Amino acid sequence: MRQYELVERVTNYDPDADEDMLNRAYIYAMKAHGTQTRASGEAYFNHPLEVAAILADMKLDTATIVAALLHDTVEDTEATHQEIVEKFGEEIASLVDGLTKIAKLDMVTKEATQAENLRKLLLAMSKDVRVLLVKLADRLHNMRTLNHVKPEKRARVAQETMDIYAPLAGRMGMQLIRDEMEDIAFKILNPDANKVIADRLARLHEESGDMLREIEVALTKELASHGINASVKGREKRAYSIWRKMERKHLALDQLSDIFAFRVLVESVDDCYLALGMVHQTWRAVPDKFKDYISNPKQNDYRSLHTIVIGPHSMRVEMQIRTKLMHEIAERGVAAHALYKDVGEAKMAQLGVRVPAAESNAYRWLRHLMEVLQEGDSPKEFLEHTRLELFHDQVFCFTPKGQLIALPRGATPIDFAYALHTSIGDSCVGVKINGRHAPLVTQLKNGDEVVIVRSDAQVPPPAWEAIAITGKAKAAIRRATRAAIRKQFAGLGREIIEALLKKQKHELVDKELTAAVPRLGHKNVDDALAAVGRGELSGLDVLKAMGLAVDEKEIRASRRKLTTKKGATDGRLSLPVRGAAANVALKIHAATGAVPGERIVGISTPGEGITIYPIFAQALEQFDQQPERWVDLAWGVAEEGMRFPARIKVILINEVGALGQVTQLIGEHGGNIDELQMQARHGVRDFFELTILLEVFDNRHLNDIMNGLKSRPLVSEVDRVAG
Ligand code: MN
């Protein structure tokens, strides 16, 4: 095809077409492809030109035709996106960009099971429906010229077309393109079946002679006599559609009777039903074969009446009855919508379109197209403003091996890892996206290649639950967290038992513990230890169950006598806290401290761990806007003698001996003073303000000390520091 021929074809249906742009695109693409050739040996430029011609036959707008001419330039030549922007503007450049992006999908290995996801990915990546139209035309032309390609590649392309592009054309309502793609692919993929069916069709055609023509004439006359103006067209079914039916219904070719089909095109929806009545009066209808796709359109907006009757010579004949507009849309689908300049109520009525408020149809986007069509002033703007909304709530990413993983929009690498396998999620420590390291909070984008970095030492931090968005990932993280907490409690329980046994001068022997477990009502040692760790089972009871004589009084008394400085502040012991995973570093907010019995909450800091705050800490306010960092914590059971920090403020009248009273009282109550700061305050009387960092066993211990201080005559106020 020559340059002027293409331009003429376009201006024939669109007198306002931008001829200059078409001419420039023609020259630009021709120069860009230069001496490149196709497998057939012909100039490469013939390909984009033929793709443009296919789209011109579909009467599409200038931008689509220009994008077709340019569709392989950025992918295959020196041309750049920037250059296309400069020479042809943003609109064209963005169409070409869409085509360049989805061209990369062809490189990925595909399995049949991935086809559905790939179709969705194509839809999701093509923000403008015109990108898909060009892509389908591109694939159609490649199919038409497939005989020049090497056999292995030929089979792969044919299979891909069968799996992805033909169904996609079908979903977009473009029957003509779908049929042609399927026919070519079927011949390549299953040449034997194709030949058998084609031969059989030829024989049937001979036997039935002029039956097609006979029915056409009879039916047209009959309809005309009732005042219905109809065009009737008989046709044989395609080899591939017969093959599919044989496969689906497990029938032999001879058992397939309705090989002939007729299309009856009429003027209005009413005529459709009148014609149907006529057909059923003329020939006997086969029961249960009538389908009304006018009141119940298919998902791709296909509308028609279908019925099967016993026609002349007792042949079963399929009838499809529809209006001309319905037919146009059945064959051209999305592309057909651009053809109609005067769209309004009347056209909608002709289509039998009722637009219900709540549309359960999964293919709302096509409904949406109809609405745009109905409302839009200019059909030229129609395709341009049509954004494919379907699947835009999903993202599709690849594994390094090319497996396609569908995730909800906003999904992170953590979701991706869990989508692959729970063990991959549990051991995930990092991610590479498109070859680069990225944070685990990164939102994945369509087409991202995601490599999960794993470590077996990893336990998923509970904070991930807030980062993940898929139910699968969240549930797995919770499960892993629960398991880690249980392990932590079991470890804690073991420490408690060991400490108690030590006082009895006894080593912990697992065998003895195992023997005691049934008496404690637990299934196994870990369960029993975790119960001790959680404080549900007392360590003394465990010792008793082990048959050890225990002097409870002595054990209780020993607690107060503990003078060794063994505290949570020096970080040697793990804190008895529930709600954090075992390997997460825990520390207590230094400005306030926190002791068992006080309500606490954790704030997680990536890379550092969790800081424990008492719920009254004012410092928590700074995290109000970061709910994802908050971790629900609760105290577990502390090991005997373990101490915890608590900072208190004491206001004291400045008199001789006042400070001595304070330190003495704290000492009498068994509290340790870790830090003490003093500030003089002057007023009617002179005061001291003391800030004391105490080390205490728990909240009750702390309250004993604070109440004791309050009872001293020289102490005017005692408070917990709420920094
Ligand atoms: Mn191409």
Q: How would you summarize this macromolecular structure in one to three sentences?
A:
The chain is of the alpha+beta class. The protein contains 29 helices and 21 strands. The chain folds into 5 domains: 3-188, Hypothetical protein af1432, CATH 1.10.3210.10; 193-351, 2-Layer Sandwich (Beta Polymerase, domain 2), CATH 3.30.460; 363-479, Ubiquitin-like (UB roll) (Roll); 515-635, no CATH class; 642-720, 2-Layer Sandwich (Alpha-Beta Plaits).
Walkthrough of the structure:
It is built from 29 helices and 21 strands. It has 723 residues and is an alpha+beta fold. The chain folds into 5 domains: 186 residues, Hypothetical protein af1432; 159 residues, Beta Polymerase, domain 2; 117 residues, Ubiquitin-like (UB roll) (Roll); 121 residues, no CATH class; 79 residues, ACT domain (Alpha-Beta Plaits). Strands 1, 2, 3, 4, 5 and 6 form a 6-stranded mixed beta sheet that branches. A 4-stranded mixed beta sheet has the order 13-15-14-16, with no helix packed on it. Strand 9 and strand 10 form a beta hairpin. Helix 4 packs across helix 8 and helix 11 packs across helix 13. The longest helix is centred in the C-terminal third of the chain and has 33 residues. The protein is elongated, with a radius of gyration of 39 Å. About 9% of the residues have low confidence.
